[in-house]
Structures are given as C-alpha cells and as structure tokens.
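User: Please predict the structure of the protein below. I'd like the answer in structure-token form so I can feed it into my own downstream comparison script.

Assistant: Understood. Taking the following sequence of 178 residues as input:
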Amino acid sequence: MNPRVLSFVVAAIAYGITLTIADIVLSRMHVPFLTGLLAWALFTLSITLIRPVLTRTLGKSVHGYTWVIGLATVLLSLIVTTLLTPMRISGFMTWVWATLIVWVGTIVYDMVDDRLVAAARPIADKVQGEIDERLDRGGPRGTGTGIPGTGMPGVGGAPGMPPTDPTGSGPGYPPPSA
C-alpha cells in the first residue's frame, strides 16, 4: 500500500479517536455516529493541508513556539470540520476545551506516527494482497475470469468476439501480423 495513503488512514483513525474522546468528555460537542467517519476524514484532510501553510506563514515569527502553530492548526481544522459536516461545537469554553483535547491527541499521534504506520503496513499489505489475489482469480469463487497478474477483472470483447487479454498471454496472442 502507498505509504502516504497508509499514513493518512492511520492519522484519520488517530484524529477520529481524539474527536470521539472530545465528544464524550464535552457535553456541548457532538459528532454524529453515522457521519463521524466523514468528520474524521475531513478533519484529517484539513489538518494535513492547513499545517504546512501555517508553518510557512508563521514559521519565522513564531520560531520556537511550534505549539502555537499546533493549536492554530487544530482550531482551524475544527472550524472547517464543523462548517462542512454535521459535527457541532457550541459555546466558547467548549471550543477551547475541544481544541486542547484534540491538540494533545495530535501531539501523542505525532510522537508515535512512524511506529503506528510501521505496525499497520504488514496488515495493509496483507489485505491488499488478498484483494489483488481475488481480482486475479476473478472473484471470491475463483471463477478464473481475472486477467492474470494485473489485479483487474477479465473484460469480454465486442459481441461475437472472444474476450481480450491485454497481458498477451491468452490464445491468439500475439495477433497475427498483416
């Protein structure tokens, strides 16, 4: 699995846990159950995009105060998430506490990020291998309609034509020369 995708998924889970903790602790914060995954993904995406922008913009003026960038990133990401998802935070102190709780969670995540991704990589690779194997076989029943080695299901040709095989390993390949 692509390391960036895996890192994003692990981050979304970690940030989702911190958002859920804040939701449980703060009575005036609500992350709906069914749309919580959307809030997790949007929060992760926004924090991923906002952090580098703030670091470049404020980097020289707050050198040595990276915690300010962290707090600002979390606050802006919470604002974006509440504006674009059903997640709700009401009251000034709830905003303050939600920002602090999620910020502490991001600090913990940042400390263990590489280890979490390293631990998740074998699991993700195994799942990806199983998916590829099923696609190569043409499905869970092993119907054999997959195109070997491509991870793609087999595709039939035009009506009246035999199925095509872009790998060139099927019968009739290579095509007769003109």
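That's the full token string. The radius of gyration is 24 Å.
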